[in-house]
Amino acid sequence: MTYLIIGTSNTIRRDGYRMFAETLRPDLPWRIEGVGATPSALVPYILADLALEDVTHVAIDTLINDSVLASDAGSNIQACEAMLFECVEWLQAHGKVVVLLLLPQTNKGEAAGLLRRRRLAFAAARSIQVVDGYAVDEAMRRDFGMDDAQLYTDPQHSTWPISLILGQRLLAAFGAGSATAVAADAGPLPYFVHQLAKTAAHQVDRETSLTKRTYAALGEAESLEFHLAAPATLQALALNARETSGILEITSESGSVTQDLQTPHAAGGKSTSAMIHLLLPLDKPLSGQSFRITLRRPDRQKEPVVAEIESALFRWDAVPNNDAAREAEIEVGLAALTEVETPALSPAESAIANAAMISWNQVDTSDAAAFYRRTFARPTPFWELAGHQIAVRIVDFGMVLGEHMAARRILQSALKQFPRVQSLRDRLPDLRDKTRSARTPTDPLDAAD
Description:
Layout (H helix, E strand, L loop, with lengths): L1 E6 L1 H4 L4 H8 L5 E5 L7 H6 L7 E7 L1 H8 L6 H17 L3 E6 L6 H17 L3 E4 H12 L3 H4 E3 L2 E2 L1 H17 L14 E5 L7 E6 L2 E9 L3 E19 L5 E6 L2 E6 L3 H4 L8 E21 L9 E11 L6 H14 L10 H16 L5 H9 L5 H15 L8 H13 L10 H8 L14
Parallel strand pairs: 1-2, 1-3, 3-4, 4-5
Antiparallel strand pairs: 6-7, 8-15, 9-10, 10-15, 11-14, 11-15, 12-13, 12-14
C-alpha cells in the first residue's frame, strides 16, 4: 500500500498541505512526486515512469498551473486537461483511489473558476473525492474576514491555515474514497516518455525538482533528432529553461510547430533569470514518428538562448481516446452545477482559523504575508519549523488545543523530536488547566509528559 501525491510547487514546498498530511499521519507509506511551475501534463509524465503495483491511493494537485496556462489565449489547455482526465480514468480502471486537489490562488480568477467547475463536474460523474481549496478560501473570507494578505504568501501559495486544513481534508478524502475492481479492459497507460539526452551532442547533469537528471543541452541553432517505434503525438517537453530561453522549432513527417519557451513565471509577470525545470505542454501537439528539435533565438532578443531538454511526453496514436464522450458528460455536469456551495468550516477547522486570526492580530505588522515569509523562510527542518512556529503561536495566543486534535499532534511530535522546543513542556501544565474542560480524560496531549 502506497499513498502517491502528484503535484507542483504546493506539493513540494515544506510548509504546504502535503507536509501537514505527512506530519499528521507519518505511519502511512507516502510517495511524493512533484515538479513546480507545471500543469496537468505532469500527470502522465509521472505515471509513465512509476511502478504502480503497490500504489493504492493517488492525489493530484495541478489546478494552479493549469489556470496560469489557461490564461494564455495561445495555449492548448484543452489537450492538457484531457491528459489529466484520461489518466484519472486510467487510474480508476486499475483500482486506485483517486483524489483531486483544487488548490486556490488569488489571480487567474476567471480561468481558475472555470477549470474548478469542470473538475467538480468530472469528479461527480465518476464518484471521485475532491479537496476543494476554493471552498476553504471562501469560508475563511466569509466567516473570519480574512483577505489575500492573510491567506496567501503570493498569488499561488497559501499560508499555513489553508495548508493545514487541506492536509486534514486530504487524509479524510483518502479514507472516504473507495477503490473499484480492476476493469477487464484496463490496458497500459497510453502515454510514454522518450528520453532525449542520449541523442544529443552535449549533455548536462542537473539536480532539479528533487531528483538529478541528465539533459540534452542545446545552444542557438543546435538540433537533436530521434525516431519512434510507431507513430505518436508529441504532447509536452520536460526541460530546464530561463525566461529568455528562446523558441523551439519541432518538425516531423506530418508537419512542424514552433514553441515559445517562455516560462510560466515570465508569462505571469514574475521575471527570473534562474533555470526552471518544468513540463511544457506544446501549444499545438505534433504527430509523427521521426522528429527534429531545433533551438532558435527570437528576432528581437539580444541575449543568448539555451535550453536543456530531458525528455518528450507522447501519446500513442493507435490508442483511441474518450475525449468527445467525456466532454459531453462534463457539459451535462456543468449544467447541473448551477452553484458551488461553500459550507462552513468544521469546529476543528474553525479553531485553526481562529488561531491564525489571533496570531495575526497580536503581531505588530501591516503585512501578514511578509511576516509569514519571514517566519517560515528560515532554512530549518520542517518539524522544527512547523512544529515550533505553529505550536508557539497556538500556545502564546491562547488557542484551546482541546478543540483541535491536529494541533495537539503537531505539538506532541515537535516536543518529542527537537530540543529547541523542549521549553514548551514547561508551559503545558498551565495550558492544561486552562483547557481541561474542553478535553476528554483520555486526551493524548496528557501523554506528552
